Amino acid sequence: MVNPHHQSAPVMVVAVPFPAQSHLNQMLQLSCLLSSSYELPVHYVGSSIHIRQAKLRCSTPLLLTKIQFHDLPIPSFPSPAPTCGGDTDFPAHLQPSFDSSLNLREPLLPPS
To answer: Where is the Glycosyltransferase N-terminal domain (predicted)?
Structure first.
């Protein structure tokens, strides 16, 4: 039951996909659904290369116009090839990518 005296706060969605888990497309599809069907403001945050990949894979590019994309300033990092048959299942080739995220210490400011 809706309380008529309750003031609802505005809702904003911040979508931050985790590329190592292949969340780029799924997060973009969810963002498109929330922005188009529910008219929610959606901010999709990631590195410029990952945002570009997600946009190129979008089956309905018109829906992208309702989403605000924000590039995180991630410095370049080495990208070694994966090693198969190692002693551990840890994806060591992704470690430089994880380490580069340690540079994201500053607050993210909205575009002016």
So the answer is: 10-108
